[in-house]
Every structure is written in structure tokens, then in C-alpha cells.
């Protein structure tokens, strides 16, 4: 197999990868960008994005990502529908193997994103894709549940944070946890337990998502969440809980398996970058977006860090002569 050499390779085409590609292309670096198995990234599986600046009435996730793609192509980005299967960051130039070919590069921007962990009930992922009432992001979707009764599942800091945040919109937030105590910090627990809109359901597991057929705002028939079936983890008893929304807050999985033995990762598997930059411990390797961010996980922060990574990469390549 022959390999081609590039100055900069970007892995991933979510908001971080495309933004990095736009900046790097405009800087004349002619980046080679690998799309992976989800071209356009996580936003391609959502309907409305209402919080990306510049779109007063919101924009559909897939349309936003198509616009970013076109913008990157306009400046000369080279896109490949390939998935990176192996990287070698121990040699110079760096080596990458995809499902199609082999490549060498002087610098790499890792923008492989992260995936929400789902309950594995079959329907939760499907319902999250078309506004069916299931979400893994309160900041993104909380606003859609104004005046409704909803549930959050999880017991860590994120779950409690999401529950507290959602009290701004929902009439009631049911917090479902399969144990009888939280893993979250004490301060977060105190705030959650004291909140009048939050009802706790200890020792409960969700076993089924029940749905109804209805119409969305475009007049299309869609399936929407109507209630949850809960199982008591102590006595096995079943109960039903009527809610219009479910926020799954049981964690995220950064897409970093490729880098496990190549780069230092934090205990949750996120790529570690130098504070305030996109630089990893390896000179010439940069990371942007959700793959290095377990705090914000937003399209705009991913795009912002993609910009930082392109500028960091351009400066680093410039210093190499
Ligand atoms: P991602 O979008 O995750 O993209 C990762 C990219 O890396 C993909 O193209 C993938 O194919 C590629 N990749 C991964 N592994 C490889 C590999 N080995 N080789 C090649 N390519 C690879 N945020 C908001 O700001 N507003 C919202 O309204 C909003 N709604 C959301 C709704 C849903 C259903 C979801 C799931 C997320 C939502 N988010 C929202 C969060 C937002 O989508 C993410 O924060 C953002 O997409 C992160 O961008 P990213 O570029 O870091 O990674």
C-alpha cells in the first residue's frame, strides 16, 4: 500500500473538525480531513439547533453541518470518507492507517468527538434522533420542554446538574437513580434534595420507554415519549411514570480508543490538552472539541476549539520551518 504525505491531517468532521479545516485551509495548509463513520458528527442526528449563533430562527443540525462542509471545501480542504484505524505518534512524520490507505503527516488535529452513553433500551437512541422526547443534553434541549413534566436518569454530578438546570423549564423533574445514594458531590446533592421541583426516585431502573404517535411541527408523523416503566431494584416491583421528556445523564464516551497507548488521557478517556490551548503533550498533535472537553460539550465550544487547534497547528508548523 502506498502512503501519501500531508502537512496537516484532521480526524473528524463535527463542528471542531470542520472549523479547524476552514481555518487551516485558509492558512494554506491544505489539510486532509477524515470523516469517519459519522460525517458531520453528532449534530447530524438532531433536528433543531437553536443555540448556534447566527441563525435567529434556529437551523437544522444536518443543514448546519452541510454548510460547514461546503465552507471547508470552498477553501481547498481535502475530505476523505475514511475511518482512521491506527495511528503511530511515536515516529516522525506521524503515521495513520485508515480502512482505505496509509498516510503520513507532520501535524494532526484530533477532533473525533464523544458519544453519549444511552440506556440500551433500543428506543432511547432512536427517540433522541428526531425530537422524540429523549436527549442527552439539557443545555441543548431543555428549552423544548417548557411547562412539561420530565425525567432525568443518572446519579453523578452531571445528572444532578442537568436536573437542576431543567427546573428552569419543566414543571417537575423526576430524578431516577438505580441506587439509594448519589455519586455526585455533597454540595450538588444538597441543592438537588432541597429543590421543590425535583422528585427523587431512588432504587429505580427504567425498563421500557412507552410512546405515542403524533405529529411534529412539520406535520410529519413521529413517535414521542409518553411514559417510563420503572423497576424497583430492591423488590422488583414495576410502576409507570408519565413524562414528556427523558434526559439520559449516565456519562459520555470520548472517541479515543485509537490513542489509548499513544497519548495521555484523563481517567474518563478524554485527551489531555495544555490549559488554554489545544496542544497535547506531543508536539504537533492537537485536540479540539468534545474529545478533549467533558465540561461544555457544545457545538459552539467545539467550533471555537477547532479554530484554536488550527491556529496552534499553523504556528507550530511555521516554527518547524
Ligand atoms: P462530533 O460532532 O462528535 O464529531 C466527531 C467526528 O469525528 C465525526 O465526524 C466522526 O465520524 C469522526 N470520527 C470519530 N472517530 C473517527 C475515526 N477513527 N476516524 C475518522 N473520523 C472519526 N450542541 C449544541 O451546541 N446545540 C445543540 O442543540 C446540540 N444538540 C445536540 C443534539 C444531539 C442529539 C447530540 C448528540 C448532541 C447535541 N449537541 C448540541 C452537542 C454537539 O453536537 C457536540 O458538542 C458537537 O457535535 C461536538 O463536536 P465535535 O466536532 O467535537 O465532535
Automatic annotation (TrEMBL):
The keyword Nucleotide-binding does not apply. Its cofactor is FAD. Keywords: Disulfide bond, FAD, Flavoprotein, NADP, Oxidoreductase, Redox-active center. The keyword Oxidoreductase applies. It catalyses: [thioredoxin]-dithiol + NADP(+) = [thioredoxin]-disulfide + NADPH + H(+). It comes from the Bacteria. Its EC number is 1.8.1.9. Residues 7-306 form the FAD/NAD(P)-binding domain. InterPro entries: FAD/NAD-bd_sf (IPR036188), FAD/NAD-binding_dom (IPR023753), Ferredoxin-NADP_redctase_2 (IPR050097), Pyr_nucl-diS_OxRdtase_2_AS (IPR008255), Thioredox_Rdtase (IPR005982). Binds 1 FAD per subunit. Homodimer. Belongs to the class-II pyridine nucleotide-disulfide oxidoreductase family. This is Thioredoxin reductase. It comes from Geothrix limicola. The lineage of its organism: Bacteria, Pseudomonadati, Acidobacteriota, Holophagae, Holophagales.
Amino acid at each position: 500500500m502506498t502512503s501519501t504525505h500531508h502537512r496537516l491531517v484532521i480526524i473528524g468532521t463535527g463542528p471542531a473538525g470542520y472549523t479547524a479545516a476552514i481555518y487551516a485551509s485558509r492558512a494554506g495548509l491544505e489539510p486532509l480531513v477524515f470523516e469517519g463513520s459519522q460525517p458531520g458528527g453528532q449534530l447530524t442526528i438532531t433536528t433543531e439547533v437553536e443555540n448556534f449563533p447566527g441563525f435567529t430562527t434556529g437551523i437544522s443540525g444536518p443543514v448546519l453541518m452541510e454548510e460547514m462542509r461546503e465552507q471547508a471545501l470552498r477553501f481547498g480542504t481535502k475530505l476523505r470518507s475514511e475511518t482512521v484505524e491506527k495511528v503511530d505518534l511515536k515516529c516522525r512524520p506521524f503515521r495513520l492507517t485508515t480502512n482505505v490507505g496509509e498516510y503520513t503527516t507532520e501535524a494532526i488535529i484530533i477532533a473525533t468527538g464523544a458519544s453519549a452513553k444511552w440506556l440500551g433500551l433500543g428506543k432511547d437512541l432512536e427517540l433522541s434522533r428526531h425530537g422524540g422526547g429523549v436527549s442527552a443534553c439539557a443545555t441543548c434541549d431543555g428549552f423544548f420542554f417548557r411547562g412539561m413534566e420530565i425525567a432525568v436518569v443518572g446519579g453523578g454530578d452531571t445528572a444532578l446538574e442537568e436536573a437542576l438546570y431543567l427546573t428552569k423549564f419543566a414543571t417537575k423533574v423526576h430524578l431516577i437513580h438505580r441506587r439509594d445514594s448519589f455519586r455526585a458531590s455533597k454540595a450538588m446533592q444538597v441543592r438537588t434534595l432541597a429543590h421543590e421541583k425535583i422528585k427523587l426516585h431512588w432504587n429505580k431502573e427504567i425498563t421500557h420507554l412507552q410512546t405515542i404517535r403524533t405529529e411534529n411541527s412539520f406535520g410529519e408523523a413521529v413517535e414521542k415519549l409518553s411514559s417510563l416503566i420503572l423497576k424497583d431494584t430492591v423488590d422488583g416491583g414495576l410502576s409507570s411514570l408519565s413524562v414528556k421528556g427523558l434526559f439520559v445523564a449516565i456519562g459520555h464516551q470520548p472517541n479515543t480508543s485509537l490513542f489509548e497507548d499513544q497519548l495521555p488521557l484523563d481517567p474518563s478517556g478524554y485527551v489531555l490538552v495544555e490549559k488554554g490551548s489545544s496542544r497535547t503533550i506531543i508536539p504537533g498533535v492537537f485536540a479540539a472539541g468534545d474529545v478533549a472537553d467533558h465540561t461544555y460539550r457544545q457545538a459552539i465550544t467545539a467550533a471555537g476549539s477547532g479554530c484554536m487547534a488550527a491556529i496552534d497547528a499553523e504556528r507550530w508548523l511555521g516554527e518547524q520551518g
